[in-house]
Amino acid sequence: MRDFRPILNILGLLLCIESIALLIPMFFDLINNNQDWKQFFYISCLTFLIGLVLYVGFKKENIKINLRQAFLLTIVSWFLIALFGSLPFIYSSSSLHFTDAFFESVSGITTTGSTVISNLDNLSEGILIWRSLLQWFGGIGIIVLAIAILPTLQIGGMQLLHMEHDDPYEKTIPKINKFIIEIASLYVSLTVLCFIFYYIFGMSAFDSLIHCMTTISTG
Fold first, then answer.
1. CA dist 131 to 65, 147, 188, Å?
2. Per the confidence metrics, is the pTM higher than 0.90?
3. Tell me: the pLDDT tens digits for 72-102?
4. Please, are residues 218 and 139 in contact by the beta-carbon 8 Å criterion?
5. How far is Cα 40 from Cα 111, in angstroms, rounded to an integer?
6. Shortest CA distance to 130 belongs to which of 96, 179, 166?
7. What is the pLDDT of residues 64-73, one digit of tens each?
8. Burial class, 166, CB count within 10 angstroms (exposed 0-12 / middle 13-18 / buried 19+)
9. 157: which DSSP letter?
């Protein structure tokens, strides 16, 4: 019998993280007196509640996932994050249909950079921040996928972890965690550096923020 509890537990954690990220555009709309902040707040609460139920309801003492579970987790997590990420586009002032909103969210998570929105300048700051955040998180997500999954299949051309399929779980996981922490630190540092340069060369603080996130993620 397949055990889906580790996958559901991690999905719950990812949704909780996404719910926290939703508070960032809410804050921008709140300080600019844009009523979209309410939609971000409600969506954040909904996302957190569902994530908490999954995280607590399927919690185990020691979470261990095999390669098949890792692939399933990757596919489902990207779909689920994109699904909840599309909600602000539907219920905010942008009022996109579900298909367009989901496309916009998937485009962000995959750092494709495509958009179905024609009047970006007329969007609220919250929605603009959310589009940039989706791309920024998508960028680091692709890096984590390349580090944690592809080397185990001996594909991709860069064997960052130099590990075999029969490596014990206790040896491979700390190695993966170490690389993820180092790459994430570099990713954040480059984002901050990019923001500083944009700001120095004449962009406003807000424009520097959204452009640095999309630049680093290549969105």
1. 31, 25, 18
2. no
3. 888 888 899 999 999 999 999 888 999 999 9
4. yes
5. 22
6. 96
7. 666 777 778 8
8. exposed
9. S
Token duo for residue 86: 């599309």
What H or E segment, with its residue span, contains residue 172? helix 169-200
Distance CA 153, CA 151 (A): 5
169-188 b/e with 16+ CB inside 10 Å = b? eeebeebbeebeeebeeebe
Residues 6+ apart with CB under 8 A from 29: 35, 36, 37, 40, 124, 125, 126
User: Model confidence over 96-126: pLDDT tens digits?
Assistant: 999 999 999 999 998 887 888 888 778 889 9
Q: List the domain boundaries for the chain.
A: 5-216
Would you state the structure tokens that stand for residue 189, as one six-digit string? 């540092």
Confidence of residue 141 (pLDDT cuts 50, 70, 90): confident
Joined together, the tokens standing for residue 143 give 């890096």
Using left for φ > 0, alpha for ψ between -120 and 50, and beta otherwise, residue 62 falls in beta
pLDDT digits (tens, 9 = 90+) for 27-76: 999 999 999 999 999 999 999 999 999 999 888 766 666 677 777 888 88
Identify the residue whose tokens are 């916009």: 104
151, two tokens = 């080397």
Predicted pLDDT at 74: 81
